[in-house]
Amino acid sequence: MFEARFQSFDAPAAPALGTERLRLLRAELARRGLDGFIVPRADAHQNEYVPPCDERLAFLTGFTGSAGVAVVLADAAAIVVDGRYTLQAAQQVDTASYEVVPLAQTTAERWIETHLPAGGHLGYDPWLITVDGLEKLRRAVASAQGTLVAVDSNPVDAIWADRPAAPVGAVTLRDPALAGETSADKLARIRAALAAQKLDATILSDPHAVAWSFNIRGADVSFTPLPLAWAIVPREGRPSLFIDGRKLSNAVRDALGAEAEIFEPALFERGIELIAAGGATLRLDQATAPAQLAARIEAAGGKVSSGPSPVALMQAAKNPAELAGMRAAHKRDGAALARFLCWFDSEAPKGTLTEIDAVAALETFRRDTGALKDVSFPSISGAGPNGAIVHYRVTEATNRRIGTDELFLIDSGAQYEDGTTDVTRTLIVGTPSDEMRDRFTRVLKGHAAIARAVFPAGSSGAQLDSFARQFLWAAGLDFDHGTGHGVGAYLSVHEGPARISKVGTVALVPGMVLSNEPGYYKTGGYGIRLENLEIVTEAPAPAGAERALLGFETLTLAPFDRRVIEPALLTAEERAWLDAYHARVFAEIGPLVDAPTRAWLYAATAPLGA
């Protein structure tokens, strides 16, 4: 019997509850003399996955997506979500109480400009708004002729009677063989970057940066092995690490104490004041640092340097040990995927499988490796029209039987100590329509274009993004998400700062791991997404080349469903790429699986014309 242990299928929020909670929040705002309040889906670190105690947006509105913001005024309320969550928000939120606003149409700031009454006081929690976000908010409120007010305590917490406690997951030390670099060496590199930029210190507000810098992992949030913590790294002297001592065993405390002074989080703001005093310049990560920190630095007489964390690029460019771990994790994961795909091909045609059945089976096959630590995000398991919901999360209420002659999209990933995986396959049960084959093949061509790309060093993801879209564009089609995101090494499955998207301006460098996941979504019909992870590598330079070139090495090892491919739409080069990829999948994964799975895999990876 298959079982999902790392993810659940309950529906934790209900629209009806959101209506009453909205009423309670408005009463609390009135008590505080506020005309409105902004509620981002965020914790103080801007994590993608936040602890239950920070799920304020879900508590208030019912929306459970990983990104969004609500604005509550006395007589109007809106929730703004991006293209991944437009359909989901409309299903989870009471639309009689909240206007669901697609981000593509307007931002939260523009909504505030047009809805905040002149003279209105809009509150915000300075721990949940970044420095950049606060500046945008200030401009919007000023445009509405209102006043922006920082609150001392979050009014949502005041109406949340059973709010969970903060997490105290145990911290573990990263195996040096997997880290590939000591924390002392990493801290030395950070100090060198501070010196080069003439900075006195940097504040690590992103727990991923803390985890990477000190070679630790934690258990404070789901799906990502994060210890929620802060750190201050000065250009000279010992770093300070601010973390709940209940998370540290004696051995971990001793190891960390060799590199840093350890304090409780309650002393973090005092630590900032001490280092800022006398006019020191401190770098705040513009992507994750809360506005509260900037205010504290300036109040102490220091100077704020807002920009990218010096850790971000170091962390993104994996070293040889990390890449070796990622390759090993993907081979292990590929074997689990092959077992799942073989099982699915046998069971789905019987007509009894549901979306939850598929999630439980795939997680079980991964657990059978004996190395699974967690899933890297809740699996997206969408049959037929549910596949068209880009970030669909199956629940007991939405669970759909996987039907015949329809597409099934499964997007999933795993956390192993040696690496993080993320893979999407779209499968047919029965016979695909001509339209399905056309769309699937156009998505595959875009995927292949990224995988085969060769580009000058210094190129950004924005310069590659259209490679994946060109074949859809030619048919008047597109998809409303980025083509790829960064992936951590036993860290976040969504890691910055590089990405392949229209707004991906960070230059790609060797060692980065990025997803390659173009898609197509027909609302009410089906969804298609094909995703592998890729390592940025140095590419051979042809004769006469005037610039260094980069390319990709594919990490993911899983066959594409050949039954949904229209061969006539592929060029000879694309067919050769696909056949070579499938041959590699069989060569590397075949020896790792049982005989029945190997026989299935042999057929699934046969040359396209065979």
From TrEMBL:
InterPro entries: Creatin/AminoP/Spt16_N, Creatinase/aminopeptidase-like, Creatinase_N, Pept_M24, Pept_M24B, Peptidase_M24_C, X-Pro_aminopeptidase_P. CDD domains: APP (cd01085). It comes from Ancylobacter radicis. Belongs to the peptidase M24B family. Keywords: Aminopeptidase, Hydrolase, Metal-binding, Protease. Residues 550-608 form the Peptidase M24 C-terminal domain. This is Aminopeptidase P family protein. The keyword rRNA processing does not apply. GO terms for molecular function: aminopeptidase activity. Residues 325-538 form the Peptidase M24 domain. It comes from the Bacteria. Residues 21-151 form the Creatinase N-terminal domain.
